[in-house]
Every structure is written in structure tokens, then in C-alpha cells.
Amino acid sequence: FFSCSYLSLHSTLRFTSLCSLSLRSALSLQGMSDEEHHFESKADAGASKTYPQQAGTIRKNGYIVIKGRPCKVVEVSTSKTGKHGHAKCHFVGIDIFNAKKLEDIVPSSHNCDVPHVNRTDYQLIDISEDGFVSLLTENGNTKDDLRLPTDENLLSQIKDGFAEGKDLVVTVMSAMGEEQICALKDIGPK
């Protein structure tokens, strides 16, 4: 038993070494060392946009992915188990970005995707003519890739407050690669 495990491990280590050696050879043929061959990405390295959660544990005011969209759960009902099959959860959710109502029915023992939803506050610096905002990040950089919100009430509050010269802090909600301004805090005159 021990010798088989040892041989298997030894073979795996030799194969890994050969692969590593082949990569070094290929890089040296291209005139690069493996120290010069590095990758950079601004995306979260391997960070998932969702995580699994059992359907029966998801509650009202929680979040769930329905038809590929991040939703806030506004209603949950559970049916009893039938003669054949599982109890089922009926979810009614509101898309957190476009406010559309979506529904799904899932067996309560199955896993559902739940989006990672984050809220971040930024100080509003400027509003461009084409509807983009310039926001000040926590580390002093500017974030210029967000549009004004589509919600008319929030939009007018932001525009009016900015025109009056008030210091405004906006809350940006992000989930599944999307971001949107979702709230406004008036922190007084400049």
C-alpha cells in the first residue's frame, strides 16, 4: 500500500517538475525569464460574484439570483412536501438595479445563487454634461465610470443638492459586475 502511494506521489512530483521545466524552456526560447513573465488584472482574482445558499434558508429582505439577475427577496412561501418530491420555495424578488419583479420556484433542499451585494459611500465631486458623475474614493482617487441614477426622485435630489453647492455623499450598490447609485446623504454646505 505504502509503495503504491509513494510511487503515485513520486510520479506526480516528477510530472509537475517536467511541466515546470517545459514552461521555463518555452520562456527561455522567447527570451524571457519566468520572473519577467507576470500578469496583472484589475479584476478580483478568482472572486466569485455569487455564493451558494440552501433555498430553504433564504428569507425575506435577503438576496437571491433569479433568471441571472440580483434580486432583493420581497416574498417567500414554502409548499409542503407532496407524496413524491420535495418542499418547494416560491421566491418573489425585485431586481436591485432595474426594479423589475421576478419569480422563481426552487426545491427547498437545493442551493440557490446569492449575489455578493456591497454598498460603498463616495463623495460627489462633479456631474458631467453627459450624465456621468465624478466620485472621490476613500484612497483619494476619482471614480468616473458611473452614470446618474435613473430613479427620478433620487436624480433630482442629487442634481438640486449639487447645484446648491452642498457636500453630497452617494451610496453605490454593486453586485455581479454592475454598479448603481442607490442613495444620497446630504452632509451639509461646502
TrEMBL record:
Which of UniProt's keywords are assigned here? Hypusine, Initiation factor, Protein biosynthesis
Q: Which domain of life is it from?
A: Eukaryota
Gene3D superfamilies, A to Z: 2.30.30.30, Nucleic acid-binding proteins
Q: Please provide the Gene Ontology terms (biological process) for this protein.
A: positive regulation of translational elongation; positive regulation of translational termination
Q: Which residues form the Translation initiation factor 5A C-terminal domain?
A: 116-185
Any GO MF annotation of the entry:
RNA binding
InterPro entries (UniProt xref): IF5A-like, IF5A-like_N, IF5A_C, NA-bd_OB-fold, Rib_uL2_dom2, Trans_elong_IF5A_hypusine_site, Translation_prot_SH3-like_sf
Supply the Pfam families for this chain.
eIF-5a, IF5A-like_N
Q: What function is annotated for this protein?
A: Translation factor that promotes translation elongation and termination, particularly upon ribosome stalling at specific amino acid sequence contexts. Binds between the exit (E) and peptidyl (P) site of the ribosome and promotes rescue of stalled ribosome: specifically required for efficient translation of polyproline-containing peptides as well as other motifs that stall the ribosome. Acts as a ribosome quality control (RQC) cofactor by joining the RQC complex to facilitate peptidyl transfer during CAT tailing step.
Family under the similarity heading: Belongs to the eIF-5A family.
Protein name (Swiss-Prot/TrEMBL): Putative eukaryotic translation initiation factor 5A isoform I
Say which species the protein is native to: Davidia involucrata (Dove tree)
Lineage of the source organism? Eukaryota, Viridiplantae, Streptophyta, Embryophyta, Tracheophyta
